[in-house]
Amino acid sequence: MKKTTILLSALSLLLLGTACKNSGFKKTKSGLLYKIVSSGNGPAVKRGDVIKLTFVHKLRDSVLASSEDQMPFYAKVDSVGPIYDPQEIFTLLHKGDSAVVIRLADSLAKKQGMLPEFIKPKDKLVLSFKVIEVFTVDSVAQKDQMAEMQKAQQRQQKKQEDLKGPKVKELEDYLAKNNIKFQKAPQGTFVEIKDPGNGAQVDSGKFCSIRYTGKSFPSMKVFETNMEAGKQPFDVVVGTHAVIPGWDEGLKYFKKGGKGTLYIPFFMAYGAQPGPGGKQYENLVFDIEVVNVSDSAPKQAMPPGMPMPPQQHGAGDGHKH
Fold first, then answer.
1. I need a surface site. Which of 56, 80, 221, 252 has the fewest CB within 10 A?
2. Gyration radius of the chain over CA positions
3. Which range is least confidently modeled, 84-88, 193-197, 243-247?
4. Minimum mean pLDDT among 101-105, 108-112, 214-218, 224-228: which range?
């Protein structure tokens, strides 16, 4: 086992145990709970420096993100106000320091807006991290970050390839067990056509209005739906990467009025990023109805909602969105 893995596991256990009691924690001006667990003997972090952190970000018993799965996090240290964010404590740290930050979900929602549905109002988001390097020259930090990014991409690609077969088999077994007739799209989306529709064909560049119910697989727990009375269809331009790849691929099997189900393997959904169920490498299922297909944009602007494409964040920023 790598030294980093051991460090993160031990740090996570220590910090989570402490976090449960909030014992010995201090508060920033914004109300952020933090604790510097161990003091490093390296240089103090100053404004203008770039710090490199290994981290584990947890919600209840689930890991939302970690530098083991992604890459270390790099941050330019600057003067910040009371923003309810881990960077509030960066200038209190030294190279080698370990720390934990606790954010309360209800406070985070008030300060930063709507949170994903899998985060409940009484939840605590626990971010534990260690300062492994402090850079005083930006160009040196950028070179180090590029090297870490390449290594992280290689790790993720390997893990995705390792999981691809078993995850696809889970979907295939479910479809076979339930005698579901489907077509498999070229990139891997399983499409169950209940009614192909009899209107205009969905295709790249078409403006489509979709009703859907999204479910986590294999639990089939609904995480979002707009099929309820009073909710508007989701408008999307197909083939423009405005939604997850499984939608862009699967919707093309329908015409206006079509109904069916898309069984989407993780690599056609959110990949290594936590999906709407809060898990990495998550297969998803969408019951869909194609309400409209048009060559022109709808009058209303596209509303925010699922299923947006995976976002490319800086790894380990402690945020889901």
1. 221
2. 22
3. 84-88
4. 108-112
Q: What are phi and psi of 179, to 5 degrees?
A: 50, 45
Per residue, what are the HEC states of 1-45? CCHHHHHHHHHHHHHHHHHCCCCCCEECCCCCEEEEEECCCCCEC
Per-position DSSP letters for 244-275, written without gaps between them? -HHHHHHGGG-BTT-EEEEEE-GGGTTTTS--
E strand intervals along the chain: 26-27, 33-38, 50-59, 62-66, 73-76, 98-104, 124-135, 183-184, 190-195, 207-216, 221-225, 234-237, 259-264, 284-294
Task: Return the structure tokens found at 91.
Answer: 């200038």
Across the chain, mean pLDDT equals 85
Tell me how far apart the terminal alpha carbons of the chain are, to the nearest angstrom.
31
Contact between residue 260 and residue 180 where contact means Cβ atoms under 8 Å apart? no
- Are the C-beta atoms of residues 128 and 99 closer than 8 Å to each other? yes
Give the C-alpha distances (Å, rounded to integers) separating 29 from 17, 82, 135, 215, 266: 24, 5, 27, 39, 40
Cα 268 from chain centre: 14
The DSSP call for residue 49 is -
Identify whether the C-beta of residue 66 lies closer than 8 Å to the C-beta of residue 57.
Answer: yes
Number of H helices and E strands in the chain, helices first, is 4, 14
Q: Which residue matches tokens 């499984």? A: 246
How far is Cα 153 from Cα 151, in angstroms, rounded to an integer? 5
Backbone angles phi, psi at 163, to 5 degrees: -90, -20
Closest CA to 72 of 55, 91, 93, 49: 55
Q: CB-based contacts of 161: which residues, under 8 Å, 6+ apart?
A: none
Residue with tokens 């508007």: 232
Return the higher-pLDDT residue of 153 and 134: 134
DSSP one-letter code for 163: H
Structure-block tokens of residue 184: 């498999």
